[in-house]
Amino acid sequence: MPVPNNNAAFARKGSNVQKVPGAKSTKAATKKKDEEEAVETGTGWEEWSQGKALVRPPDQMELTEAELKEENTRILTANNPHAPQNIVRYSFKERSYKPINIVDQMAVHFVLEGSLVHQDSEEFDLRYKYLFAGFPQVNPAVDGGDVEEAGDEDRPDSAASRINKKEPKVTNQFNFSDRASQTLNNPMRDRICQTEPPPRSSFSATANQWEIYDAYVQELQKQEKNKEKQKGTHSHKDNGKSKKVMPMETQSEDVTKWTMASKILERTISQNTFDDIAQDFKYFEDASDEFREQEGTLLPLWKFQYDKAKTLSVTALCWNNKYQDLFAVGLGSYDFSRQGCGMLLFYSLKNPAFPEYIYPTSSGVMCLDIHVQYFHLVAVGFYNGCVAVYSLKEEGREPVYKSTAKTGKHTDPVWQVHWQSDDMDSNHNFYSVSSDGRVVSWTLVKNELVFTDIIRLTLTGAVSEGPKGAQAPTSGTSFDFHKQIDYMFLVGTEEGKIHKCSKTYSSQFLETYDAHSMAVDTVKWNYFHPKVFVSCSSDWTVKIWDHTINTPMFVFDLQAAVGDVAWSPYSSTVFAAVTTDGTVHVFDLNVNKYEAICQQLVVDKKKTKLTHVEFNPIHPVIIVGDDRGYVTSFKLSPNLRKKPKVRVLTSLPAWFYLLRIKKDKTVFLNL
């Protein structure tokens, strides 16, 4: 087989190379060498020219012509696949966690900041002068070299002169590399504590010579009195040993100096200790109420306890209308076989650790009431039949007014007291009801209590007009005055009846309701509706009444003895009740007329019984007392404090007439 001649190919290949002068002598030798190589390679041409079969692996997939022509495209996007898509942050404006839609998609793989400076720039001149200012300049004339004429390139300020000059080599000035690494930065945290600012007062006075002299004289007189008292105390000796007694004046002066400061410090420490509860009280809202249309919950807040009152029961609760964080607690005992001392305590939501005021009593406290206008006056009823008035402005632990046997005190426990508006002579007065069947008005006159019997309760249902004891009296257990009509009030009895009475017409009852089968524990008028009142009893029932109808409008069976019931101050249809099984029931007649919208167990069912409940006048908070002396506060969820919508009737056609019937039901007649 003839060997193919590749000289032409090599010739064409060589023709593309540019001809270099002087290369003719080597051209013949190169041509001869190429021919020899072509002859040597021609021996394997036969094997190379044969067709080669494609070797296909046995597991290779066979594709059709259409599948082979199909184009698979991939789209490259600028989105970072590793960037998180579920970042949420807390929004203080909306008070909830919100997702973040904008996510940074840039990923930095390498960053290198250069430090090169152009030699003609001003920055280079500044660095050059800074680095080489202290080095000596090299003069070529001194070294024996020839001096050339100075031209434009040899000027000291030109760039060419800088390049030609032999500059000393400074290591590690521009010849270095930057290395960077990414580290995790610790997140910043803000911690905030809320405290009440201390009270401030402006004081200004002028100091003269005579004022300074009088102050020194008063101080000398006090010191002389203290010395005389110390001499008198040392003269009294017991068994030959003298007792050192510190004067009371100096003790009181020392105590008053730091009493207020210690109270402020204690309140500050308490607020820092219970900061999480304070945050829940101000800002927490149960978000699950959005998914529960007709149900709500109670959030436990502070728990109030006094160590010396563990053996007593909570017998009364009352909020202060001016200072909404302050409330009074009456402590006594409902076990008549175990009667002893009682206690009157005042707590504040700002300091749940210890009471603000403590008043120990010789008899158990059964009821109390704070004056609506004069917030420092508190009326208290005791188990021994006495009533008393305490003043928070007065120092000491004794009441300002107290009834005695000479001034007409009750002969049985006092179950309810209520402040009323001042009389014609602007004297404060309050009313009380007791198990002896008397409803008494007490008037504060100078330094004594003046009593007036308003009405006497009897078993026959009529008021006794004859001498005392002519008719068998019945026990009064509770009463309440109408919110708008001053002379009208309701009285609950031990037989389960409720009497509607009047101050001005005391010869007989205005109305009698057969309410319960056991004693009426509580009866209260509605704050908004003038006809509606509520009552509860140990017969397990709570009843809603219209005082113009003898039968109840609503009856609720709570499956346990009911201790107390209270209307809410923000809605005419919401009320709460507590039972002896430790459950708090909250009703809203505007939402559900048949059952409670909240039934929550707040204490141990077997060991503790709830006795009283009371709504805060401003905040969505209730307080609950039990028979172990504890008072617990709860925050109402949004579903439990909804205000009813006010329906405003717009202009109606002439053929519509509005008709109002009993039970406050509104219907329209189409005439």
How would you summarize what this structure contains?
Helix content is 17%, strand content 28%. The chain has 671 residues and is of the alpha+beta class.
Structure description:
With 671 residues, the protein is α+β, with helices and mostly antiparallel strands. The protein has a domain at 275-460 and 471-640: YVTN repeat-like/Quinoprotein amine dehydrogenase (Methylamine Dehydrogenase, Chain H). Strands 5-32-31-30 form a four-stranded antiparallel β-sheet, covered by helices on one side. The protein is flat. The termini are far apart. 25% of the residues are buried. Mean pLDDT is 78; it is low at 1-27, 38-42, 140-153, 237-247, 464-469 and 649-671.
Please give the largest β-sheet: 4 strands, antiparallel
CATH-scheme architecture of the domain at 275-460 and 471-640: 7 Propeller
**Number of DSSP E strands:** 34
> What is the CATH topology assignment of the domain at 275-460 and 471-640?
Methylamine Dehydrogenase, Chain H
Q: What is the number of helices? A: 9
Low-confidence stretches: 1-27, 38-42, 140-153, 237-247, 464-469, 649-671
CA-CA gap between termini: 126 Å
Q: For this structure, what is the CATH class of the domain at 275-460 and 471-640?
A: Mainly Beta
Give the overall shape. flat
Strand order of the largest sheet: 5-32-31-30
- Supply the helix-strand structural class: alpha+beta
Rg for CA atoms: 50 Å
* CATH homologous superfamily classification of the domain at 275-460 and 471-640: YVTN repeat-like/Quinoprotein amine dehydrogenase
On the 0-100 scale, what is the average pLDDT? 78
- Helicity range of the residues? 10-25%
The proportion of strand residues reads: 25-35%
